Amino acid sequence: VNGIGTITEIQNLGENYFLKINVDESLQKYLVEEGSITIDGISLTIAELDNSKVGISIIPHTWKNTSIQFIKVGGKVNIETDVLAKYIEKLLRKNGTEHTTNITENWLKELGY
């Protein structure tokens, strides 16, 4: 678990649901639209990012077959961020040695990350 989020909104859209979750600022650098996020152990896709809030669309199968159906506005959830973002950060971070990588933020953007 990388942090705790707070449910700020639950929209019933007929068969689907849309959640907004307030996420701590320290985790936001690991979040991108269409990237992965895990909420209480349920792996989901980020549909929207809005400042400190993450929007997540929930399909009927996920809603009916996971504990996500029991969350409430104001409730706390465990957050795990996308591991790929953590790997990229690790590659870009200097580790105190003279060895550096040729991987740069601009290069990753050119590749679509």
Outline the secondary-structure elements.
Layout: E1 3-13, E2 16-22, H1 25-28, E3 36-39, E4 42-50, E5 53-58, H2 60-65, E6 76-81, H3 83-92, H4 105-110
Antiparallel strand pairs: 1-2, 1-6, 2-5, 3-4, 3-6, 4-5
What does this protein look like?
A 6-stranded antiparallel barrel has the order 1-2-5-4-3-6. The chain has 2 domains: 79 residues, Elongation Factor Tu (Ef-tu), domain 3, CATH 2.40.30; 31 residues, no CATH class. The protein is built from 4 helices and 6 strands; from the N terminus they run ββαβββαβαα. The model has no long low-confidence stretch (mean pLDDT 89). The protein is of the alpha+beta class and 113 residues long.
Q: Care to give the gist of this entry?
A:
The chain is an alpha+beta fold and 113 residues long. It has 4 helices and 6 strands; from the N terminus they run ββαβββαβαα.
CATH C-level name of the largest domain: Mainly Beta
Low-confidence stretches: none
The helix tally amounts to 4
Q: Taking all residues together, what is the mean pLDDT? A: 89
Query: What overall geometry do the principal axes of the alpha carbons give?
Result: elongated
Provide keyphrases for this structure.
elongated, single chain, 113 residues, 23% helix, Elongation Factor Tu (Ef-tu), domain 3, alpha+beta, 4 helices, six-stranded antiparallel beta barrel, 6 strands, 2 domains
